[in-house]
Amino acid sequence: MTEPARWTAEDTEDVVCCLCRVPGTLVHDLVPFGVVRCPQCALVFISPRLRPEALQRLYDDAGYFEGGVYDAGVRAESRSPAMLLQRTWTAGRLALIDRERDLPAGGRLLEVGAGYGLFLAAAREAGWAASGVELSRTGAKHAQDTLGLDVFCGQLEDAPLEPGFDVVCAWDTAEHVPDPVSFWRTVRSLVADDGVVVFSTPYVDSLPARLLGTRWWTLKPAEHIWHFTPRTHALLLARAGLALTRVVRNPLAPANAGRLDSLVGVARPIPGAS
Ligand SMILES: [Zn+2]
Question: Ligand 1 centre and the CA of 199: distance in Å?
Fold first, then answer.
């Protein structure tokens, strides 16, 4: 994974809160990065953070996913604990989508941040017309060439997608994007008015985050550049025309299995908003 010593101040830039446009107040100094909190809305974010060019280098690095779920996932039929969890999340999340829609699987599903395409492949298997977007060339290539999935490699804003998706998924993605307000606005423009948005992210008011401080294993300041709470998620989503309608924090729920510091959220378009 990321070597903290690999980045210098020259790779970084200062940013402001994406909601309030004001600089944050320092919480943890992790040179060359800083963990800061917006004095107005309490959104936690990284500033200084990696510049866009440095971020792209990070995601293009074939080693980016190594050691995690995806490393196991690219080996067929892996029975590693990480892969078992991955399968539990996938099944739990597909079931959550069906429950939220109160409909059987089927229709158009978009996954933003598709990684190696494991969830998308399962969604296709369940009956969805599945499309994806992935920034990492390594991940996108695997999804396209090995799994035969329809995955665009690049930023969501640049993807040639037809709007009107029944479901848009963003698993562990919103904490990575340059500007979450702009990200959720793009998602809002792609989801149908009666569609559903489902996502997962770490949350900074989770017990591990509060107890462990700078030793929180999910802090990773190079790639996790926004740290949300259910409250700041609701603010961000509302700014983008989406209402946060459900938050699953229980680590026993299949959609969130074993995750003590992450949540699964469900959001729906606010009528009349765009
Ligand atoms: Zn703010």
Answer: 21
Any idea what the Cα angle at residue 160 is, between residues 157 and 163, rounded to 5°? 85
pTM score: 0.91
Contact 181, 19 (CB under 8 A): yes
Distance 235 CA to ligand 1 centre (A): 9
User: What tokens were used for 102?
Assistant: 């109160």
Residue 8 is assigned to a structural domain of this protein? no
- Which tens digit of pLDDT belongs to each residue from 200-241? 999 999 999 999 999 998 989 999 999 999 999 999 999 999
The reply to whether 61 falls in a domain is no
CATH of the domain at 202: 3.40.50.150
The number of distinct structural domains making up the chain is 1
**Residue 140 domain boundaries:** 79-269
228 Cα: distance to centroid of ligand 1 (angstroms): 11
Q: Residue 81: which pLDDT band, with cuts at 50, 70 and 90?
A: confident
